Amino acid sequence: MKKLLVFGLAALLVLAFTLPASALESQFGGYWRTRAWTAQNFTGEDDTEARDVTAVDTRTRLYYTAIFHENLKFVNKFEFDATWGSATGSRAAGAPTNRGYGQVSADGANIEIKNSYADFNLGPVNGKIGVQGVRLARGFLLDDDFSGAVITFKGETFAIPLIWLKVYEGGQGKDANDMDVDYFGVAPSFKAGGVSINPYVVYAYSKDLSGYQPTSGAEELNMFYAGLDLDAKLGPADLWFTGIYQGGDVDLANSSDSLDFKAWLAAIGGSFGASWGNIHGQFFYATGDDDPNDDELNEYDVPAGQSYYWAEIMGYGKFSDTSYLQVSNNACADQIGHIMAGNIGVTVKPMDKLSVSLDAWYAALAEDIVTLKGNEENYLGTEIDLCITYQLVQGLNLDIVGAYLVAGDATTMEADNDANPYEVGTRLSLSF
């Protein structure tokens, strides 16, 4: 795998330097950040220290786009991740387990090809084919990198994208194709004045889910999402709304029974801007399953591709790290479902290079869970987040973040050694 990645990078460089200058324009960009943080009591207790962590990590993203002409681009994005002192991360398959990009004698094994796709125009039609980023419903539905095709018909005030995403490939052999998982979607958007409307429908299908890791005990899937995004600018105020219904059904393996999807999500938010900063807030509700023993699946859920960051401790925030399960106990992280949460915050800019944000979050599960002491609870807690951002030099920013969760019983589970989670960290970042 490492040899394949190196060969791919070399091929791109050869392409960039051998084609005539008149035939190719090379565009480079990227992002880099290094973070140092500590996270404590995320289990809701301070006895086991099971998920306490203090760490430093680095992420580098390099972007290369070959522009052949105004109607054809070849887009590539590469990512390198390293936890300092660790061999874990995005290490290529088969790389030595005792060496890694973050360790002494680091090598280049920790590399990911994030995107690689052709971007072309055929008159008013734009096509993007390959591994690319796709975002729908602000991330409440999709915000991730996928293999697939997005074909968009563009007008002056509207765009109509047709989307096909290959989520899982069943492989080779008898009936292997039945195990494919595909998303098909259409997401037109319309603009008029300060208002934009974006309805969408996404259909997920598989004839046999048995080979797909995120599911178990299921066969044929026929599931759809129908939703709407609304954005409006009213003077200094920016308002937004998202609503999504999840329907369809899935057949159970080795059974004639099936389960119906009946779930929904609603979210609303906005900000009011001024010369000194802004006031902002949002609220979202995603249904949970009130009866796991009936024939309905009521918890809003996306099998793959959903990502919506919110609070620092309960919703990943700036120091997300899935390898450390860095989210407080029973919170949904960026996979919004079975939760209701609200936020109010303020950002002030006392000088050009400095901004300070203070946010308060309230969160609870949509349905009660049973605690360690047998009580039914749903309150996750109230979180306070503080972020100070300062531009050290032009292009280089320093973030200082502190977060504290006044944990509810659904977080602590009423353990005898209840403790409130907290997080403190810094992040140095640049983009070009």
SSE layout:
Blueprint: H1 2-18, E1 25-40, E2 53-69, E3 72-83, E4 112-122, E5 125-136, E6 142-154, E7 158-168, E8 181-186, E9 189-192, E10 195-206, E11 218-234, E12 237-252, E13 258-261, E14 263-274, E15 277-286, E16 296-297, E17 339-351, E18 354-370, E19 376-393, E20 396-407, H2 409-412, E21 422-431
Parallel strand pairs: 13-16
Antiparallel strand pairs: 1-2, 1-21, 2-3, 3-4, 4-5, 5-6, 6-7, 7-8, 7-9, 8-10, 9-10, 10-11, 11-12, 12-13, 12-14, 14-15, 15-17, 17-18, 18-19, 19-20, 20-21
Features:
432 residues, mainly beta, 21-stranded mixed sheet, 5% helix
Describe the structure.
The chain has 432 residues and is mainly β. It contains 2 helices and 21 strands. The chain has a 21-stranded mixed beta sheet that branches. A hairpin with a 5-residue loop joins strand 18 (354-370) and strand 19. The two termini are 28 Å apart.
Task: Please outline what is shown here.
The protein is mostly beta strands.
Radius of gyration: 23 Å
Beta-strand residue percentage: over 45%
Shape: globular
- Structural class of the secondary structure composition? mainly beta
- Listing every helix as H and every strand as E from the N terminus to the C terminus, the arrangement reads HEEEEEEEEEEEEEEEEEEEEHE
Query: Average pLDDT across residues?
Result: 90
* Biggest sheet record: 21 strands, mixed
Q: How far apart are the first and last residues' alpha carbons, in Å? A: 28 Å
Low-confidence runs of at least 5 consecutive residues: 90-98
Number of strands: 21
**Residues in helix, %:** under 10%
Number of helices: 2
